[in-house]
Amino acid sequence: MNILAVFAHPDDETVLAGGLLALLAKLGNEVNYLICTRGEGGEVGDPPVSAQQELGLFRELELKNAVEHLGGKNLTILDFVDPVVGENNQLFSFTEDQPLLRKLILKEIDEKKIDILISHGSNGEYGHPGHLTVFETVKEAVNLRDGKVTWYTCQAAYEGHPKPHLTNRDDPADWVVDVSSVAAEKLAAMAAHQSQHSLFKRRKSRELGRMISLEEILQLEESYSLQTKNNNDILRSILEPNGFLK
Ligand SMILES: [Zn+2]
Predict the structure, then answer these.
(1) 99-112 pLDDT per residue, tens
(2) What is the C-alpha separation between 127 and 125, in angstroms, rounded?
(3) Cα of 241 to ligand 1 centre, how many Å?
(4) What is the distance in A from the centroid of ligand 1 to the CA of 125?
(5) What's the whole-model pTM score?
(6) CA 95 to centroid of ligand 1, rounded, Å
(7) Which pLDDT value is given to residue 5?
(8) Domain boundaries along the sequence of the chain
(9) How far is the CA of 55 from the centre of ligand 1 (A)?
């Protein structure tokens, strides 16, 4: 199967869907990545890995490294610029030009003969406007290739989701996949996103009152929602016979 993972920023692919993407690569599928920005508006790390003006370059290298660990076949990074986080942590989308983004997604779908697309969910996980732009635009692109592309979204809702703050509450999970067999690959991809480590660890470190390790936030259970309800659930038919579904 030819798979396309479409995400807004470097690290979204790993944090939100890295386990499934690594697993699908391991099972012999061609996994392609389309990342819309270089995450240049994000955090520079603590201690900083680079100046804010050079963060995009740095994160591009981190992303390439992460995709390699996940067994990705191709990585395309689009030239949209991730806006710097505003006052009071206000987040912005990377574009208002959805027709351009749609065109670029369709080009990737057609060139790589994509069967399955995986992206952000309908709530943008925690409501990030850039994630929502990707969701809305992927929806338009998939509709234009009616029936040809089977589309799933990540971090779908179910009772007992391990990361409630990342859950798309309006996307019911069709299945939950155990990604513990690719824990090492997912962890290596998280480690590759060095500039974001302090961000990754902040919430749980505060909760526990101590600095935690990456292993402690590694999510080994991922949930997905089949958005194109008229398509067969191809991923279920790949994962279930191999015993990967919970
Ligand atoms: Zn993101």
Answers:
(1) 999 999 999 999 99
(2) 6
(3) 32
(4) 9
(5) 0.97
(6) 13
(7) 99
(8) 2-239
(9) 15
**How remote is the CA of residue 8 from the centroid of ligand 1, in Å?**
5
Cα of 35 to ligand 1 centre, how many Å?
Answer: 10
The 10 Å CB-count burial string (b at 16+, else e) for 107-143 is: ebbeebebbbbbbbbbbbbeebebbbbbbbbbbebbe
- Yes or no: say if 3 and 114 are a contact pair by the CB < 8 Å rule: yes
Those residues whose C-beta lies under 8 Å from the C-beta of residue 238, and which sit 6 or more positions away, are: 1, 24, 27, 29
Tokens for 184?
Answer: 């090492």
Q: What is the fold, at CATH topology level, of the domain defined by 2-239?
A: Rossmann fold (3.40.50)
In the reported structure, the alpha carbon of residue 7 is separated from the centroid of ligand 1 by a whole-number distance in angstroms of 7
63 alpha carbon to ligand 1 midpoint, in Å? 13
Q: Give CA–CA dist 4/119, Å, rounded.
A: 8
Could you read off the pLDDT of 84-99 as tens digits, one per residue?
988 888 999 999 999 9
